[in-house]
Amino acid sequence: YHQLHTKETRLSEFNQTELKAMLESYTKVLFVRDPFHRLIATFLQGMGISPSFSSFVQEVLDSGTHNGSMAWKPLVSLCRPCLIQYDYVVMFGFLRQELGHLLHRAGLPAGSLLPELTDSQVQWTYRWLSEQMFSELSAQQKKRLSHFYRWDLAAFPLSSSFLSD
């Protein structure tokens, strides 16, 4: 199906028959990250113009799911896991072991292709950042964020997310 589209073609531009056949011909991998961690990363990368994390979160909540940036939109609305049957779901925080398994299944030499990943340090850092930034939010913002990401929290094993509480 590579001859049917260019890099700019979106899946929504294919009819159902083409889409089904094309998706069945690929190995589909979905990378999942805690939505609260995605918000923190977006804020720290300066993608929001807000002076504080709390005001950035308010901008995200005010933008809604339809007008928001892909950097913070709920993953379920971007990747459609209920419509597309992914072959692999890789959780951020377990990248080293999961990518190694994925490369092995694809018949590729996992050891030489994987960058040095320190998952435990990343998890610890995001846990600390989450505690700090979550404490900046009002009770209403916390509740609205949990509602905003409710489908991601239901679809993926994110029980350790601050938004799951």
TrEMBL record:
It is an enzyme of class 2 (transferase). The keyword Glycoprotein applies. GO terms for molecular function: sulfotransferase activity. InterPro entries: Carb_sulfotrans_8-10, Sulfotransferase. It is a single-pass type II membrane protein. One of its GO terms (biological process) is carbohydrate biosynthetic process. Pfam families: Sulfotransfer_2. This is Carbohydrate sulfotransferase. It comes from Vidua macroura.
